[in-house]
C-alpha cells in the first residue's frame, strides 16, 4: 500500500473513531441529563461546574463544554483515589460523575469522603458500576476489578457516607422513565432488552441490555 493510501485509511479510521466517540459522549450526556431531571428535578445548565472522576481520555469534556458546563477531571495520573485528597476546595461542584471507577477500588472511603467534601450542598454524585447480581460470571474477567456491588450494597454504602435521597437504577442509556424505576427494574433491563445497544439491524425497542447500575446520591 502506498504512503498516500496508508494516510487516507489512517485519516478515515480516525474520523470514524471521532464520530463514534462524540456519539458515545452525547449518549452519556443525554442519559445523565435525563435521569437528573426526571428523578431529582435538576437541569444541567450553563455555568454548572462538574467533576469527572476517572475521566480517562476526557471523552466527555467536549460535550460538556459545548453545553456551557465547566468541566474538571481527575484520574490515576493525578492522584491515588484510595489515598489522596482531591486538589479542590470544599463546596466547589454542582455535580460529580464517576463512570466505571468504583469497582476498581478496594477501599472507596476516601474517594466518597472527598466527593462529599467538594460537592456543593444539595448537589449530586452520579456513579456507575457493574451489578454483581447480573455479572457474577464475568466480573473478575477484568483483572482490575476488585470490589463488586449490588444495588442494595451500593445504596447502603452511599447512605453510610452521608448521602441522602439515594437511588439505584439500571445503567440503561436514553430509555424512558419506566425502565429506570420499579421493583423489577434491574430484571427488566437485563431480560426484556435482549440485545446490546450497539447491535446492528435490531429495533431500538429491543436494545440496551444492562448488567450494570447507576447510583445517585445528594449531599
TrEMBL record:
An example molecular function term from Gene Ontology annotations: methyltransferase activity
Superkingdom as given in the UniProt entry: Bacteria
The name this protein goes by in its record: Methyltransferase family protein
Keywords on record: Methyltransferase, Transferase
Protein's UniProt keywords contain Ligase: no
GO biological process, one term: methylation
Organism, scientific name: Pelagibacter ubique
InterPro entries, A to Z: SAM-dependent_MTases_sf
PANTHER family according to UniProt: METHYLTRANSFERASE TYPE 11 (PTHR43861:SF6), TRANS-ACONITATE 2-METHYLTRANSFERASE-RELATED (PTHR43861)
SUPFAM superfamilies: S-adenosyl-L-methionine-dependent methyltransferases
Pfam assignment, any one: Methyltransf_23
Amino acid at each position: 500500500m502506498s504512503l498516500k493510501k496508508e494516510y487516507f485509511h489512517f485519516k478515515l479510521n480516525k474520523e470514524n473513531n471521532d464520530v463514534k466517540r462524540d456519539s458515545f459522549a452525547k449518549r452519556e450526556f443525554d442519559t445523565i441529563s435525563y435521569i437528573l431531571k426526571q428523578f431529582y428535578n435538576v437541569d444541567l445548565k450553563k455555568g454548572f461546574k462538574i467533576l469527572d472522576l476517572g475521566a480517562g481520555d476526557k471523552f466527555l469534556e467536549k460535550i460538556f463544554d459545548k453545553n456551557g458546563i465547566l468541566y474538571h477531571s481527575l484520574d490515576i495520573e493525578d492522584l491515588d483515589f484510595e489515598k489522596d485528597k482531591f486538589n479542590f476546595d470544599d463546596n466547589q461542584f454542582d455535580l460529580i460523575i464517576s463512570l466505571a471507577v468504583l469497582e476498581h477500588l478496594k477501599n472507596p472511603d476516601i474517594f466518597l469522603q472527598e466527593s462529599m467534601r467538594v460537592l456543593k450542598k444539595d448537589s449530586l454524585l452520579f456513579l456507575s458500576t457493574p451489578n454483581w447480581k447480573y455479572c457474577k460470571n464475568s466480573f473478575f474477567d477484568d483483572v482490575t476489578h476488585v470490589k463488586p456491588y449490588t444495588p442494595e450494597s451500593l445504596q447502603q454504602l452511599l447512605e453510610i457516607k452521608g448521602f441522602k435521597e439515594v437511588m439505584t437504577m439500571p445503567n440503561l442509556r436514553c430509555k424512558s422513565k419506566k425502565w429506570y424505576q420499579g421493583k423489577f427494574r434491574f430484571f427488566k433491563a437485563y431480560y426484556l432488552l435482549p440485545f446490546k445497544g450497539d447491535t446492528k439491524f435490531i429495533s431500538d425497542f429491543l436494545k440496551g441490555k444492562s448488567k450494570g447500575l447507576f447510583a445517585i446520591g445528594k449531599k
